[in-house]
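Good day; I would like, with your permission, to put a structural problem before you. What I wish to show you is a protein chain and, alongside it, a tokenised description of its three-dimensional fold. Here, with my thanks, is the record as I have it:
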Amino acid sequence: MDRVLKRIAIIAAGVLLIGIGGNAVLLVLGQWNGAYMTVGQARISDTYIVKSSTAKRLELDSSSGDVRVVRSDVTSPTIRISGWSTSDNFEKEDVVQEEMQGDVLHLRIGNKGNGRSSGQFVFWKLNFELLLPQKEYDELILHVSSGNLQIEALEAGTLKIEMRSGRLKMENCKANEISIKKLSGRADIKNISGKLNVENDSGNVEVSLNEIVNDAVFRSKAGNIELHVGAVSTPFKVEATALSGKMDIDLPKDGYQVHGASSFHGLSGQGDGPLVKVEIGFGRARIW
């Protein structure tokens, strides 16, 4: 009997300890979650209208968050802000700053918060949509430190894009010169017009060109390059080299079907034309 009672007492003590431990864990999680629920569920949805509308050149610097840039029916550059904040005291000026220097409009966007304490702004997620007037800028420069960048239907004399990480999606853009520099991440480029230079340290690059009227250069240190030029009707020259990778050339209408090569030189179409140049270090290139 004593043994039975002792066993029951041990089981009861164990259940009690489990209950106390479980409640403690729930209490800690509940307090953390309660703080999060209290200060972390404010929805951001706001619009910032840039004061200057006379700039001939525009430079955007994004420190964090996904960014979409597109032309629209606006008279001044307009930034739509969306996301979540850990404070309901959100001010759009906290994440957007503008400055005119000569004819250049500098826009800086992104989260400046770095803590939970009072007076600091912390955002779990910020998205920005930059709407540009229909006019053509002399120069557009887009810097993105962290986050994805989507560009649609832009026109400029010069278009420069610099990204550290994140995915680039670019389509239906036109400029005399287009320069793209990425440290890492995927890039999808479709239907763009202008002299093109793409440099990518790592990550895959996929390009589809409808026409080639200017030189196009693609360089990648590590990663794959896929270049679709099969629908192009204008003649162009092709030069491709691979330091340690391989390349596949699939242009059957021009009589080129080369696989596993380290270099290639050829001509697509009749007559002379612009140069398409592909250089890869480690990885694989496909031109088709």
The two ends are 86 Å apart (CA to CA).
